[in-house]
Amino acid sequence: MPEVFPWLMRFIDDRPESVSVKSGKFTDGGEIGDSDVWISATFDENLPEYVKLVIYMDETELLEPEKSQETQDRLLRSVRWVCDRYNVVYGHLSYHHACEMTERERFLRGEAGDPTLNTPRWRSELRGYSWLMVISADVAVRLGGADSLRDSQAFHSVIALPNGSLLLQATPTFREYRGPAVENVYRAVRDVLVTGEFRALSPMPGVPPAHMVVLPD
Predict the structure, then answer these.
(1) Do 17 and 42 form a contact (C-beta atoms < 8 A)?
(2) Res. 100: pLDDT tops 60
(3) Rounded CA gap, 116 and 96, in Å?
(4) Which one of 57, 158, 170, 201 has the largest count of C-beta atoms within 10 Å of its C-beta?
(5) Taking Cα atoms as reference points, which of 103, 123, 124, 125 lies closest to residue 113?
(6) pLDDT over 90 (residue 18)
(7) For residues 117 and 162, what is the distance between their CA atoms, to the nearest angstrom?
(8) DSSP string of 51-82?
(9) What is the pLDDT of residue 217?
């Protein structure tokens, strides 16, 4: 809310490493429990020209029938607002991994999976692919443009953004982004994905499946 901004600015340095905002109801212990949304903006000293905006949410809200449509609509409105206001050159929907790796980067060995090295390559390569993603104008040209991506039938929606980037939505709902839908997106963008040696990660209890093609054709 606007009245909160003056208070917030008093606690933010000129160039903080990150800024996080969590919204929800206070518990008896004075902490925010079951937060409605958790947003962070991260500034990396190795990437001074870039700002990473991250929105965290519980995947179950996108999967449960009674909640999913409202949550998805709210997410899409937020993404469109950010994309229309700022110069977004890459975006994706992924599980929360260390160093904000994408699903693809998590399966690549060494420097090939390093977000700090991959981020500056936004003009020519994608760090990964997902149900909802933003690709730069340069990458879009490499893939044949918006019309070519629409004709690929891999995407439910292809939206041109003010800076020339494209906002791509694979299926009408996140719940539908499984199996063949994931493979279709992979085939549509595989020529511009960061490449490297894949590693097989040991399955861990409670870890959700990756919504991606793990091994190349």
Answers:
(1) yes
(2) yes
(3) 16
(4) 170
(5) 103
(6) no
(7) 26
(8) EEEEEE--THHHHSHHHHHHHHHHHHHHHHHH
(9) 46
CA distances from 84 to 80, 89, 169 (A): 6, 12, 16
How far is CA 23 from its chain centroid?
A: 20
Asked if residues 125 and 193 have their Cβ atoms less than 8 Å apart, the reply is yes
Task: Please list, in sequence order, all residues whose beta carbon lies within 8 angstroms of the beta carbon of residue 31, skipping any fewer than 6 positions away.
Answer: none
Contact status, residue 205 vs residue 175, Cβ threshold 8 Å: no
DSSP string over 34-59: EEEEEEEEEE-TT-TT-EEEEEE--T
Range scoring the smallest mean pLDDT among 103-112, 139-148, 194-203: 194-203
Radius of gyration, alpha carbons of the chain:
18
Taking the CA of residue 123 as centre, how many other CA atoms within 13 Å lie in the half-sphere pointing to its CB? 1
- Tell me the backbone φ, ψ of residue 77, rounded to 5 degrees: -65, -40
Render 12-41 in DSSP notation, one character per residue.
--SS-SEEEEEEEEE-TTSSEEEEEEEEEE
Asked if 122 contacts 91 with a C-beta cutoff of 8 angstroms, the reply is: no
What are residue 215's phi and psi, to 5 degrees? -105, 140
> Residue 91: what residue type?
G
Structure-token match 């905006």, residue found: 53
